[in-house]
Design goal:
168 residues, alpha+beta, Aminopeptidase, 7-stranded mixed β-sheet, 26% helix, globular
Length: 168
């Protein structure tokens, strides 16, 4: 058994995007993977935050994730746009670390988090459920061109209260 180092999670930068598009094409070949131009425009949008998973600081991207913060202050909602880890590194904690980074963004603005996930993606569904998400509905034929269904999942807004401080 090999010990795997904890993933390094940092900001996704423009130099990472070609690799992201390659991973995307491999993972989502049957469901209209984002092209490089899609990653470029997502990274530029001011309401989005994108993260990279790497094996070492400054290393190549092995996974990526993005979340948007939408709405007015006090009424924010967050939407997970994507989360992906290249096949050779799945199951090693990188997806969990990327999800935790995105949830920290949502928690800072006390926002609920929404996402879609293929109904047949049991590992991802289990990860989301372990992190407080619940299935809120089903979107039929959500993924194209495959026609696969998606669950819409939501995690309620979280607030971080200091230890020992409670509302009465």
């Amino acid at each position: 058994m090999t010990d795997r180092a904890a993933p390094v999670i940092d900001a996704l930068v423009p130099d990472d995007l070609v690799r992201c598009a390659e991973i995307e094409a491999e993972l989502f070949a049957g469901d209209s993977p984002w092209p490089l131009s899609g990653f470029v425009s997502e990274l530029r949008a001011p309401y989005n935050t994108y993260f990279a998973a790497r094996l070492a600081l400054g290393g190549p991207v092995i996974g990526y994730a993005g979340i948007s913060v939408l709405g007015r202050p006090g009424e924010h909602e967050c939407e997970v746009h994507t989360i992906a880890v290249e096949p050779g590194h799945q199951g090693s904690g990188h997806g969990r670390a990327l999800l935790e980074a995105m949830l920290e963004v949502a928690d800072r603005v006390h926002a609920p988090v929404f996402l879609e996930v293929r109904t047949d993606n049991d590992p991802a569904i289990a990860l989301y459920e372990r992190n407080g998400f619940e299935i809120a509905g089903t979107r039929r034929n959500y993924y194209q061109p495959s026609g696969a269904d998606a669950y819409t999942m939501v995690r309620a807004a979280r607030t971080t209260e200091p230890e020992g401080h409670a509302h009465s």
